[in-house]
Design goal:
The complex is a heterodimer of chains A (217) and B (444). Chain A has eleven helices and no strands. Chain A is globular. Chain B has 444 residues and is an alpha/beta fold. Chain B has three domains: 127 residues, Fumarate Reductase Iron-sulfur Protein, Chain B, domain 2 (Orthogonal Bundle); 139 residues, Rossmann fold (3-Layer(aba) Sandwich), CATH 3.40.50.1860; 120 residues, Rossmann fold (3-Layer(aba) Sandwich), CATH 3.40.50. Chain B is 52% helix and 6% strand. Chain B has a four-stranded parallel sheet. Chain B has a four-stranded parallel sheet with strand order 6-5-7-8, sandwiched between helices. The longest helix of chain B has 18 residues. Classes of the chains: A mainly alpha (217), B alpha/beta (444).
Chain lengths: 217, 444
């Protein structure tokens, strides 16, 4: 079995199993830690609407805070948009998703994907440098913060190398790229990449809690 | 009105007399850690678990914290203030604990002692950090769990322990109990202000606080005048008048529940339809939002802040106020627990507007308002004096920028802290209360 055969076969299968089961385990575990129903008399009863409102409103900081966190606000959007475009609209990626999901969608030209991948990589490196140098972020950071950056950064870098056929045979670069993605999938449920799953529920619960008090979250 | 009150200087002297080293409960270090963990486990519900699992450690919350802003000390980043709780969650309660345990250090007594400063001195629980978090994490709720843990471990700071024990054991605060309230009521009677004390039945049961009785009796007198003017069927009970809850402040559940229970049982006994809360943010939050949950049953009465009451009475045309025509302006300081955590934000502004006062907002206002710097009992801690003053300076700067003639607030604790800050820095802007402003403008 070649490295590429392993990476695209059992390696990928195991990584996907760990990814799915790990996420399920973590979400179910949090659900089992149930909270008591709030029985205080609500000021506003439409808490679902308040919860959904918070999912939306927390996508941008309140004006009183925006200036202080502009760097993170802007880089946050740049990073996520560039990453999702690179992952979801690259033709070979779509072929892979089609093989798993059974359907596909239009792809973007490779030149655009290359640009978005470079932007995503550059922003992530900037965020890494900030984490290592900003007094607060450096102070509060733990291994998870750095591991989670590296396991996403490496697939981006190897993806760019594979795309540009730079530094080694294409098959080798592709295998390394696939393996790096698998490492990310395996790490996902253990670290803070889980925020991809947890962010919306967390915002929603904040919205409902504030909403019943008549406060816009 | 001019009811004789303890001077601010005398009150500050009273605070200074409180020992900072009163011996607490004797426990071994192991017991303290065990009891802290037990409290953490009791309070770590599904909501907090989602919070623990969602935190990105982005550090944005630091930018909302007045203590971080004032000092640039990274330890004051709110996310750091609940670090031991997160470690406990990861090691002992997370679905991934079997994995995290290998990489997550256990809590030690040294941690608990270090975090005593971070969660009592350096956090007023104002919740401004809750508003900046892009994940929607209720950071202040997590820090509140930290206080529960430290209270369980017997590590509540000395001054807070003194007033907690006083409320729990004597049903008094700062020496104010039934006798002091009765004396105040009698004095108000001589001034023609009728206070229906200790009635067995009433629609409205009014609460006050020791701070009001001691320092701001005019606020209580104002409440009485407003209620009488509105024709309310009300009383205040000398055996259950204290709205402040030091159990909430310290994180001590038994005291918190006892203080809530005293009010709830009395309100039920006299058939109150409404319990009217004085100008106290934490007291409002506690009874309004925690009361039913701590009692385990819905409350049989409404909990209404005096600001809400006045706004509703004006709207219903039961209370008429004189309208200022001299162009006077005020800045309204939102008490965190009344506004950001309580939803009483627009009502005080409506009341001020009804008196023709121009409300000049601070740059950060309403749900993003800066704390006065001394909330959640912080104002009694001598170890927090410097931090408190630095946080106050931020507030002061914003108020100065607003350029109003005076500051009005709806919380006597905020008022004390603003006055102490002003006293320390020679700040001249008058600080007054909403209820007193209303009473001074009651139309005939």
């Amino acid at each position: 079995m070649t490295l590429l055969e392993f990476a695209s076969g059992p390696g990928l299968q195991w990584a996907l199993w760990i990814f799915v089961l790990g996420i399920t385990w973590r979400v179910v575990g949090a659900v089992f830690l149930l909270s008591r129903k709030d029985i205080s008399k609500p000021r506003h009863t439409n808490t679902i609407s308040a919860g959904l409102g918070a999912v939306w409103s927390r996508s941008a900081p309140a004006p009183a805070f925006e200036k202080k966190i502009r760097f993170q606000h802007v880089t946050g959007y740049a990073w996520h948009f560039a990453l999702f475009i690179s992952v979801l609209f690259f033709a070979p990626h779509i072929l892979f998703f089609e093989s798993v999901l059974g359907f596909s969608w239009p792809h973007l030209p490779n030149s655009i994907i290359l640009v978005t991948a470079i932007i995503a990589t550059a922003v992530l490196v900037a965020l890494l440098i900030r984490r290592a140098t900003h007094p607060v972020q450096r102070f509060i950071s733990n291994a998870d913060d750095y591991i989670s950056i590296f396991v996403v950064l490496v697939p981006l870098l190897t993806g760019i190398l594979a795309f540009t056929h730079f530094g080694a045979r294409y098959e080798t670069l592709l295998a390394v790229h696939l393996l790096s993605v698998e490492v990310m999938l395996i790490w996902f449920p253990f670290g803070k990449l889980m925020h991809m799953i947890m962010t919306m529920p967390a915002r929603f619960q904040a919205g409902t809690a504030f909403g019943r008090r008549g406060v816009k979250a | 009105m001019n009811t004789e009150a303890m001077s601010l200087q005398d009150f500050r002297g009273k605070l200074k007399e409180m020992p900072i080293d009163m011996p607490g409960r004797e426990l071994t270090d192991e017991d303290r850690v065990r009891r802290a963990k037990k409290a953490f486990a009791q309070k770590l519900n599904g909501h907090r678990a989602v919070d623990m699992d969602t935190c990105l450690q982005c550090g944005m919350c630091a930018e909302a914290c007045h203590f971080y802003e004032a000092t640039q000390d990274e330890r004051y980043a709110p996310v750091y203030k609940f670090r031991p709780l997160r470690r406990f969650y990861r090691r002992e309660m997370s679905p991934m604990r079997w994995f995290y345990r290998a990489f997550t250090r256990d809590i030690t007594i040294a941690d608990l002692r270090e975090w005593q400063h971070l969660v009592y001195d350096a956090c007023t629980g104002c919740g401004r950090c809750d508003m900046i978090c892009p994940m929607g994490i209720k950071i202040s709720a997590a820090i509140r769990v930290m206080r529960h843990g430290l209270a369980g471990a017997g590590l509540v700071p000395s001054e807070m322990r003194i007033i907690r024990d006083e409320q729990r054991d004597k049903n008094t605060l700062f020496g104010v109990g039934a006798e002091q309230l009765k004396a105040l009521v009698q004095k108000l009677g001589t001034q023609g202000i009728d206070v229906p004390l200790d009635r067995d039945q009433a629609d409205v049961m009014v609460l006050t606080t020791a701070i009001e009785v001691l320092l701001f009796p005019d606020a209580f007198a104002a409440t009485a005048k407003i209620l009488n003017k509105a024709g309310a069927d009300w009383t205040i009970r000398s055996d259950a008048f204290e709205a402040a809850n030091v159990g909430v402040i310290t994180g001590d559940d038994p005291t918190m529940i006892l203080a809530i229970k005293r009010i709830v049982e009395k309100a039920n006994a006299i058939g109150a339809k409404t319990v009217l809360m004085p100008e106290s943010g934490h007291a409002y939050q506690t009874l309004r939002w925690d009361g039913a949950n701590e009692m385990g049953v819905p409350l049989s009465f409404d909990v209404v802040s005096i600001a809400e009451f006045v706004a509703a009475e004006i709207k219903a045309d039961r209370l008429n106020l004189k309208t200022q025509s001299n162009g006077a302006s005020v800045t309204y300081h939102d008490p965190c627990r009344l506004s950001r955590k309580g939803g009483v934000t627009q009502q005080p502004r409506d009341v001020l507007a009804a008196m023709g006062l121009e409300v000049r907002e601070t740059a950060s206002n309403r749900r993003e308002n800066y704390c006065c710097g001394g909330g959640c009992g912080e104002f009694v801690l001598k170890s927090a004096a410097d931090l408190r003053q630095k946080a106050f300076e931020i507030k002061k700067h914003e108020i100065d920028e607003a350029g109003a003639d005076a500051v009005v607030t709806g919380c006597s604790n905020c008022r004390v802290n603003l006055m102490i800050g002003a006293d320390n820095s020679g700040w001249q802007t008058p600080v007054t209360s909403l209820v007193e402003t209303v009473a001074a403008n009651l139309a005939d």
